[in-house]
Amino acid sequence: MNNQAVMGNFTDVNVLMHAAEKIRDAGYTDFDIFTPYPVHGLDKVMGVKRTILPYISFGAGATGLMTAIGLMYWTGAVDYKLSIGGKPFFSAFFGLPIMFELTILLTALATFGGLWYLCGLPRWYNEYQHDEGFRRAQDDIFVVSIFSTDKRFSLDTAKHLLTELHASDVRVVDAQV
Amino acid sequence: MQSLNLEGSPVAGKLQTLAFAMMGIGVALTAMAVVMGGMQHFYAVWTLGFSYVLGITITMMFFSGLQFLVRAGWSTSVRRISELYSGYVPIIILGFIPVILGLFSGELFPWSNPETWSANGLKLAEHQIHVVHTKHAFLNNTFFLARIGLYVCVWVLFYLYIIKGSIAQDNSTDYSTTKRNYKIAAPFLIFYALTITFAGFDLLMSLSPTWFSTMFGVYYFAGNWVSALSMIAIVVVMLHKAGHLKGFVTVEHFHDIGKLMFAFTVFWAYIAFCQYMLIWYSNIPEETEFFIHRTHGGWEILAWTSLVLHFVVPFFVLIRQDFKRKGNVLVIAGIIILIANFLDLCWVVLPVFNPHFSMNGSEFGPALLLFGGLLFTFVAQARKTNIVAVNDPYLQESIELVS
Fold first, then answer.
1. Tens digit of each residue's pLDDT (9 = 90 or more) over A18-40
2. In angstroms, rounded to a whole number, what is the distance separating the alpha carbons of residues B57 and B271?
3. Distance, in angstroms, between A94 CA and closest chain B CA?
4. Per DSSP, what are the bridge partners of residue B122?
5. Do B281 and A41 touch (CB under 8 A)?
6. How far off is chain A from B368, nearest CA to CA, in Å?
7. Are B235 and B266 in contact (CB under 8 A)?
8. A40 at the B interface (CB within 8 A)?
9. CB nearest to A93's CB, from B277, B321, B402
10. Residue B143 in contact with partner chain A when CB distance is under 8 A
11. Mutant choice from A52, A65, A84, A96 vs B, greatest count of B C-beta within 10 A
12. What is the pTM of this model?
């Protein structure tokens, strides 16, 4: 059976905020709200957890730093010693720009890649984009949808909940793969 | 118009007591510097403490001017704090007097009489005297005084126009002073950049007249800027805790100031390292002299301390998002940065006058005295001026800030 979603439309941000809070309190974790513009504080009332992206960045940065130190130490002071102007074979002073650059490079790449991964990108289409009301989420309404993949999902309670929260046009949409 | 000053506030009283304590200890330590070290030691530590507090005070005006230049919305509810600190500008410039006395005594700046200048056995060598003579066109008493006069004029104009204009907005019915500030902020910031750079050259770099670094002005600015941000953070957190900024400042403002502090501790380290590495790598005697002197004879202690306290500790304290949103953490980081910046200037100034590491506490005298003056002026200003720019067109945007 295909996935399903129960969708409801909202036009007022305050009502939407309240609804998001109630859905979160009802125990749903797999629901989403599609908005035409970023709504500050919505992630908080939806109970979205803080991203783990900083840890990915930090880990990649530390890896870059270690790589740079290891690379310069091994090439300069172990494998192929060259005396240049009497400088030491390895020193943190001339090494620091390279350590810095590799740290930044790996951090930037991991942050970019990690963001794509965590956001589920690239995604060419949305399974529910054929729904006329859902498309209006890009224009003038907020669309709340509770997905059937949520472990608490049941068609009737989800519909009932959204109606109770003053959503208009509460409907069941079948996913189109 | 509602009035939001600190008249009768207990936290103002506490800050004032702290300021008086600092000034008292400062006077005692300054007297100790004169008695134990003689006039030359006094001129040296005065230049040290004066450069420290002068840089912070002038950079407070830069903070305010910068917010006008970029039409910043987020900072409007904390901008006035920097403007209250700026009230110290007309007083701190009097601190140039002992520097000028030191110049004329010939004991402070080696370039003022290169042949006879000496300090604790340090003298200029024959070739160094020659180098100083070739720099006579820039380093001579008349031009030095003229430059100081110019800086003072620029800073006082900056104060009278930008800061006074911003404060006048509180009681104004139209936005004419704010609009004027938007226009004049850019030219003033150009002059700020030039004056802080050359003030760094004149007060600090010319103490080692045979050495030069084009990075030095930025280095001086970076230390001042991160110290000024720390001072703003400390006072904003204190006043917020005491309930004075409720409704204007939120944890989002802490977060934004914390981000700036974090960014500019990294900037300071970047600038300091750039200056060091290029000189280390090219290894030319006329450039390395400065660092060789400061990494031998015990002075390397200060170099390592300022590296750890000015960069490593604040970096790891401020790197986490949730730490930047805690007022107490910002205060601790701010105090560490302020101490580190002072030790960093000690490392620049004191080795000029002594080949071996020697600090007996009297170095802190003028810095404490002038710093206490800064705090006292802040309290005095805050008692008669609103501590929030209540009539600024961006205030509402700042209150609703989500960073």
1. 888 888 888 888 888 888 888 88
2. 21
3. 7
4. B119
5. no
6. 35
7. no
8. yes
9. B277
10. no
11. A96
12. 0.88
- Contact between B109 and B398 under an 8 Å Cβ cutoff? The reply is no
Judged on CB neighbours under 10 Å (0-12, 13-18, 19+), B125 is: exposed
The predicted complex's ipTM stands at 0.75
Three-state secondary structure call for residue B245: coil
Nearest to B353 by CA among B22, B43, B34: B43
pLDDT (tens digit per residue) in B272-291: 999 999 998 888 888 899 99
pLDDT of residue A59: 95
Interface test with B, best of A83, A93, A98, A104 (most B CBs within 10 A): A93
Chain A: residue whose CA lies nearest to B322: A50
Q: Where are the domains of chain B?
A: 10-387
Contact with chain B for residue A88, Cβ under 8 A: no
d(CA B92, CA B377) in angstroms, rounded, equals 10
What are the residue ranges spanned by the domains of chain A? 4-49+122-174, 53-118
Q: What angle do CA B162, B166, B172 make, to 5 degrees?
A: 135
Helices (H), chain A: 13-25, 42-46, 53-73, 92-118, 132-135, 155-164
Does any CB of chain B come closer than 8 Å to the CB of residue A62?
Answer: no
The helix/strand/coil state of A76 is helix
Distances (CA, A) of B170 to B32, B253, B388: 45, 21, 9
Chain A positions touching B402 (Cβ under 8 A) are 40-41
In the prediction, which pLDDT does B2 show? 54
- Residue B126, token pair as written in the block: 């024959």
**Rounded Cα distance, B318 and B261, in Å:** 8
Q: Which of B86, B100, B102, B98 is nearest to B54 (CA)?
A: B86
Exposure string for B294-321, b = 16+ CB within 10 A, e = fewer: bbeeebeebbebbbebbbebbeebbeee
